[in-house]
Design a protein that fits this description.
Elements (H helix, E strand, L loop, with lengths): L15 H30 L7 H36 L25 H21 L1
Length: 135
């Protein structure tokens, strides 16, 4: 099995589905070829000895092809997962630096992220409990 290298390139969002389709087709073709070769090997196994170096080589080749297909399927899954995260991610708010001159004012609500709101809520709860204890 050859070494793998991770590359990164961009495609138009409109072309993503067809690119992923090409990858799926390529994986399916490799898998079909592997299955066909394995079927021929099974046929040979019925008529020739199987405990040979040749059989080991054939099996290693099948396994390498399966690893190649699996790697392609992993890549496809990662692309689809990234796409779905992109689609589900809310639009990003403007960076807080845009509001740097509003030190005494509340930051606009569209800039607040849910985690910040949760932290503010917890701080408020903490302050209430501190006041209850000190009173």
């Amino acid at each position: 099995m050859g070494q793998r290298v991770t590359i990164q390139y961009s495609v138009d969002l409109d072309d993503l589905e067809s690119e992923v389709g090409k990858m799926i087709k390529c994986a399916a073709e490799k898998l079909e070829a592997c299955a066909e070769d394995l079927g021929e090997t099974v046929g040979l196994a019925n008529t020739t000895p199987t405990l040979t170096l040749e059989m080991i080589e054939k099996l290693l080749n099948f396994r390498e092809e399966l690893v190649s297909v699996d790697n392609t399927l992993i890549d496809i899954s990662n692309i689809i997962s990234s796409f779905l995260r992109y689609k589900l991610e809310p639009e990003k708010a403007p960076p807080p630096e845009q509001y740097a001159d509003t030190t005494d004012q509340e930051m606009p609500s569209e800039v607040k992220e849910p985690a910040i709101e949760r932290i503010e809520e917890l701080i408020g709860d903490f302050n209430i409990k501190v006041n209850e204890i000190t009173d």
